Amino acid sequence: MATVTATNDQQTRERLLEAAGDLFVEHGYNHVTVRDICRAAGANVAAVNYYFRDKLGLYQEVLMRAIECMHEGSKTAHEGNPGISAEERFGHYVRTFMEQVLSNGQACRAGKLMAREMADPSPAFDLIIEKAIRPNSAQVAALISELTGLPPADPRVGICVGCIQSQITGLTGPVAERMVPGRHFTPDIIDFVADQVIQFSLAGMRAVAQEGNSPSSGKFKKTSERS
User: Fold this and answer.
1) Angle, to 10 degrees, between the axis of helix 86-102 and the axis of helix 155-169?
2) Burial letters for 10-30: b for 16+ Cβ neighbours within 10 Å, e otherwise?
3) pTM of the prediction?
4) Torsion of CA 168, 169, 171, 176, to 10 degrees
5) What residue spans of the chain are helical by DSSP H?
6) Closest to 123 (Cα-Cα) out of 67, 63, 66
7) Would you give the DSSP letter of residue 121?
8) 93/82 Cα distance (integer angstroms)
9) Which whole-number Å values give the CA distances from 54 to 60, 63, 91, 178, in the listed order?
């Protein structure tokens, strides 16, 4: 009897996590209620409090699963043949990350969940920054530093990181959904978009690198010091 009860408890908990994940991706944390989640999961309204303490506790667990998925995806994206050039490693990163974000599956859901957070932050936003965005951004910054010759802490490197990530994640957010309804990212379309992002980003970074060696390269620093 105890084994059956434990199994039922685990199944209910998993249904709540799955239902909550789908609803949070579709509507965002702030627009989903505990009642919505329990109805979708076929569970009693008190189940969220029983298993997760409250809606935020449930959301944080959904996020941690998404973050773990993103960590695995980030590891794959940053794993390139060490013998290839920095430009080739950058291309591998963009293409792999974009495939994960735009293809079907858990990686895609994680990417959409992050895009929801960018558009409508929840009380768990700091968790995403510290556990998901900051670690990946540091790795991208190191690669951009290698490509541009600028120190990783240079503000221009940080701006490049933001521009690159925005090009990728911007395709999964609620704005993109409304601007391009009925989007269907086939492997060929993902490959085409990835090529454009790679070429666009490398051209921009080359321009940044050239400015970094020019007499006007200190203007950003001087402006920052005045502010």
Assistant:
1) 40
2) eebbebbbebbbbbbbeebbe
3) 0.72
4) -150
5) 2-27, 34-41, 47-52, 55-78, 86-102, 106-119, 125-128, 134-148, 155-169, 174-179, 187-212, 219-226
6) 63
7) -
8) 13
9) 10, 14, 42, 31
Which residues of the chain have a pLDDT value below 70?
1-7, 80-82, 104-108, 172-183, 212-227
State the pLDDT at residue 52: 96
Give 111's Cβ-side CA count (13 Å radius): 25
Whole-number pLDDT of residue 4: 39
User: Domain 63-213 adopts which CATH fold?
Assistant: Tetracycline Repressor; domain 2 (1.10.357)
Q: How many other C-beta atoms are found inside a 10 Å radius of the C-beta of residue 148?
A: 23
The whole-angstrom distance between residue 134's C-alpha and the CA centroid of its chain comes to 11
Kindly report the CA angle at 69 between 67 and 70, in degrees rounded to 5? 60
Q: How far apart are CA 3 and CA 99, in angstroms?
A: 41
Q: Indicate the domain borders of the chain.
A: 63-213
Contact 64, 113 (CB under 8 A): no
Q: Which two tokens stand for residue 137?
A: 């951004």
| pLDDT at position 73 | 72
